[in-house]
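Session log. Operator J.P. requested a structure for one protein chain; no other inputs attached. Running the standard single-chain path with token output.
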Amino acid sequence: MGGFWRLLRTGVDAMTSGHHIWDRKEAMAYVGAGTRLLRPANYPAGVPGHGTFIGRTPAGQRVGVINLIGRVFMHPADDPFQAAWREADALSADTRVIVVDFHAEATSEKIALARMLDGRVSFVVGTHTHVQTADEQVFPGGTAFLCDAGFTGPHESVLGREIEPVLRRFLTSMPQRFEVARDRVLLQGAVVEVDEASGRALRVERLSEALS
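Structure written below.
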């Protein structure tokens, strides 16, 4: 988990997650200690950690973050739509600027949740599929949306893993060791401009920059 602390030292305010948050038992100590590493807010009651965060920009503007996980083609979880309403209402008492990370597989589920929240949050961004989409837009109510932010890592790969072992798995159906690839590293995500007074997004722009 050393990378967690290195990211915080670069100025990262909060980190969202998904179903892999529990893959390493060391994560329990970080998530459960109330750090800025979030787990989805719609995990069942009693799960360690928190699904929301409120931070401040250098200018002092409060910004809320909500982390949710989908249910379509994913592991069982509580209803993300109900959780989104609940958490957005709670954060709106402190700030109009709210960002939602919806870690989900189905594009329809991501779009539906974002449409439901239009006008209630500033930005809904999907994660999980590792493939950046080209549907960035601002909805009529002022909520920016991007179905998937993509991933930061090696893109000369199959979703970040070395190509040949993945091909062998598909061709032979035999187990393979999927090593992390190294070439053509990209930083992917999105930049959103928000009116601080209203919380409405003014524009959204996809980001995909070469790091190596």
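Operator note: The longest helix spans residues 80-92.
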